[in-house]
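PROTEIN ENTRY
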Amino acid sequence: MILTSGCIIGACCQVNTCEVIPENTVIFGSGCQRRVQTERPQPQTLQLDFLMKILPNYHHMKKTVKTTSAVTPAKN
C-alpha cells in the first residue's frame, strides 16, 4: 500500500496492500467508505508536541553487561 499525503484511515478500516491511496483520501465507517477532502488536513501539532514530551519518559535504554573473555597468548 502506498499512502500519500493528507490521507486518513479510520479505525478498523482495511485497505489492500497493492493499492495506491490518492492524496487527501479519507477512509471511514464500518463499510470503509471513501471520499476525497477538498482541503488538506490541519497539521497535528498538539499531538506532536504531546508525543515529543511524553515519549522520552518511556524510552528506557538497557545497559549492556560487558563480558570479558580470557584470551591467552599463543605459545610457540
